[in-house]
Amino acid sequence: MDIRVCMKLPGGPDVLEVIGAVADPPGPGQVRLRHHAIGVSFIDIYHRKGLYPLESPKVPGVEGAGVIEAVGPGVEGLQVGDRAVYAGIPGAYASSRLLPAWRAVPLPSDIPFDIAATSMLRGLTTHMLLTVCHPVRPGSVLLVHAAAGGLGGILTRWAKHLDATVIGTVSSPEKGAIAKANGVDHVIVGRDADIVSETAVLTHGAGVDFVVDGVGGDMLRQSLRCVRPFGDVASIGWVAGPVPPIGIEELGLGTLSKPSVMAYAADSNRYRQAARAVMRALARGVTGEIGGTYRLADAAMAHAELEAGRTTGGLVLLP
Is the pTM above the cut of 0.70? Predict the structure, then answer.
């Protein structure tokens, strides 16, 4: 029986409810995708908590991979039986779902469904960060927080393909080993580490060119002190909680942005261009590691583990 995981009200993992579902026929310009794997991202937790409200029927999840099982009128270039992956549109926590056809990206047969499902959104985020927020070139120096996480792994590997130097922060020696395996050049370990001082030592006082801060909280204030003059800081997540007010004088000579991958992926032309780059990256091994696999019906458990910081890599739900 088909199922989907939805929520009536915002709250903790316990608000996620498993209910029966019917596979709807696709309308004009739509396809129906039978999920083989569904990615779990921190944005799913933001949706669950109500930070970014979901429209009814309030089904979280913004990325997945599977096989097209029905094609609506007017769809060209896709057919029943095609493997496909997508990202950037809520509603993924379901056995199958309807998608705008332009969201369905052809998935080569040599890329596993679980890798694709947990890499697509992070790949789009990485493309946005390394090409738009701060065009990374050979010799660029990056500071990546939570470098052992799902995004941290892909971001590091992509940056290393661009011949950049990556400094990564992690919360434990075990996660430090994972970050090093991902290609991080220098690891700063510990939640209480003096990141500003250690970054200054590693860059000989110059500061980094680009900081990717998915932690939030007071970490953003520290990130601003790690960047070189006229460097860039991207605030992309608040895992540690909201960012306290920051005075404009604290920006120093750097540039602060709060980019949104959901907005980045909402433009169909830009989405297709970025998706092609992600597929090329996946083909050459720029993927994240699978940190945990759960049944779709156990989505609440996956949320609890991710939110508690007990996971590394990407989490995947299997219908």
Answer: yes
